[in-house]
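INFO worker-7 received task bundle
INFO bundle size: 2
INFO processing item 0
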Amino acid sequence: MRKICSGLQFPEGPIALANGDVLVVEIARGTLTRCAPDGTTSVVADLGGGPNGAALGPDGKVYVCNNGGFSWHTANGLLLPGHRPENYVGGSIQRVELRTGAVETLHTECDGRPLRGPNDIVFDRHGGYYFTDLGKSTEDARDFGAIHYVDAAGVIRTVARPIMTPNGIGLSPEEDRLYYADTVAGRVLYWDIAEPGVVRSPTAAVYPATTIAAGLLANVGGAARLDSLAVDSEGNVCVATLVVGAITAIAPDGHIRAVVPVPGGDPMVTNVCFGGPDLTTAFITASGKGDLYAHEWHCPGLPLNFGEV
């Protein structure tokens, strides 16, 4: 595993570009940043708030989940996010034109409810995208989260709510499953996809009408908490594992195939994406120390629907 960039301000949401560059958001800095293979960086856009997950859309623009920002503190040489900041004004979905850096805000609410802390995003083959809303926390309370879907025409609707701490999100290779990571519980769950933006429970459990019961893929266990994820070409769910400081690869049947540690002792391993000419390079964000790593994966990543610019 090799370090590509350092000195980033809590990087997340990596996007591997065809020319070898990797885009990341810097949550604490409020920017979309380009990381070149030689380690140099440049700011693409100033997004404000707390840019989080990011993905390329069918129009070649970058879609960003903005969580509205965090309060920040340092401990043991790590930069760490805290609760909702005093200047918090809400969450949003933003879109960035890479050539000019122009930023537009697409969504700040769904069904009359304000977005609280949009976190991660994935596009389906139909040109729509799913995104998680983790919610925000204070010293005394935490929001419930939700998952939303925006179709190719830009219409937003709720997929499921309320959900505890939904973070990373991804699609199976056949796009018949929607995976998400529950941060605090340290587990990956899933629904079957009935049609774009509509899911059904794979279990027979009975829950309140507002909740669609998810199936359990895997419980990572121990003190681990989970962040964002990517899916490889074998269908393994590769989820960033906080506290442990690793990427955990989970097979479609729920078997934990591997735990891949990230060097440097950073417990804030937050995200992974696949890139390189054959998609076998995993780009991994170690956010507490502000590093971006590259690691050769055992198989190609799952090609994203709109993944090259």
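INFO item 0 finished
INFO processing item 1
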Amino acid sequence: MQIQEKTVGDVTILDLKGKMTLGEGDELLKERINALIQGGKKKLVLNLEAVPYIDSAGLGELVRTYTTVSRQGGSLKLLNLTKRIQDLLAITKLLTVFDTFDTEAEAVRSFSSASV
């Protein structure tokens, strides 16, 4: 898995590319998120447009990331879910946990209307 980072205002967007599976992206994501949180970045968006597959470890990592960011007073949102990932989140009832967006502009704008 590859992670590209960019900033729009005070929002950090991580463009994820590749499968999010055990040993193939979950650790990389964990390290990147921890570094961002320690650096004071609390408005995070994960762009999943180029993630074709998430297994149970990847799903666990998404939940862990959400929990870590929330505990630090931050907010994590998901962007560009593929149909497969959207179905997976719906089946596991996680679609109600995450804020999801179809466009980067909507995701960034959502932070200014939230009280984070």
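INFO item 1 finished
INFO post-check item 1: The CA atoms of residues 27 and 61 lie 8 Å apart.
INFO post-check item 1: The helical segments are 26-38, 56-71, 83-91, 104-113.
INFO worker-7 idle
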